Amino acid sequence: MSMFNVLVVGQTGCGKSSVVNMLAGESRAPTSHDLSHCTKHWAEYAIPVDGHSFQVFDTIGFLEPGLDTKGYTEAIADTYLAIDTLRQRGGIDLLLYCVRDEEIEKMKGHYRLFHEVFCDEEVPVALVVTSRGISHKVYKAIFRSHKIACVDYVCANIASTPGRSNSAADTESQKAIKELLVKCCDAGPNPRSTLQQLWRRVQKLVGTDQSHRSLKRNEVSALLTRRCKMQQEVVEQLLTALNLQSPSSRLHRAPYAGGKSATRNLPSSENDASTRDEQVSDARPR
């Protein structure tokens, strides 16, 4: 059976961990309802869905850098550790971006950070729009206007406070999210035009395909400022958090796995802390 690697990202309080729990059908990932126990490091969960085996990576939620620059850079750096771990296991099958309805218009920079800087641009992106109730609003035009390419999206009912949920809506949301994962992982990467596919094949034949290459420090810096629209002060702090201080430092991007990721039983979030800390240390960029 193929193992599908899914990376879940999003801002603090957007419902990432609640989405993971919906997929699992039980409470496994700590949520922001209890700030003392919410996700403080990336964590992975093995979750079977409709005959598919998913390894779901829940990451730290991040605030806007202007609100807490240190916390922001640490959260992004920890997310990169999860991405680099996935790179070493063969890549990522799906980037699942969770976003609150009211945050969609401000997500472009972070979408580019994860999709373009940290991952190969062929890694499929799917969106889970979280809100208090199921919404039938059409978001495609909004995503298109902000140049956010996704293979698909769903709206999910994520209760804003503990104990206030609608069981019917929750069941519908759970079904929609599960169907989204299966559909996206079965479909593969974002479709390219015939010309783009031909050009990629030519590059691979002549050995100049650089889509999976690592990025030098100055390249990362340029992408963060130009594409992600980060302030230079935030960029410098993030580069430090990513251990990219010297000009020769490189950041390794995770490729699309294509359902062919390694299925080694590496330490997971459910193992003891000391073993997991060693795994995290090994994942740091060199």
Automatic annotation (TrEMBL):
Which InterPro entries does the record match to this protein? GTP-bd (IPR006073), P-loop_NTPase (IPR027417)
Give the compositionally biased regions (Polar residues): 262-272
Compositional bias ranges of the Basic and acidic residues kind = 273-286
Which keywords describe this protein according to UniProt? Hydrolase
Q: Matching Pfam families, A to Z?
A: MMR_HSR1 (PF01926)
Region annotation (Disordered) ranges: 250-286
> Per the record, GO CC terms?
mitochondrion
PANTHER family in the record: HFLX-TYPE G DOMAIN-CONTAINING PROTEIN, TRNA MODIFICATION GTPASE GTPBP3
State the name under which the record lists this protein: P-loop containing nucleoside triphosphate hydrolase protein
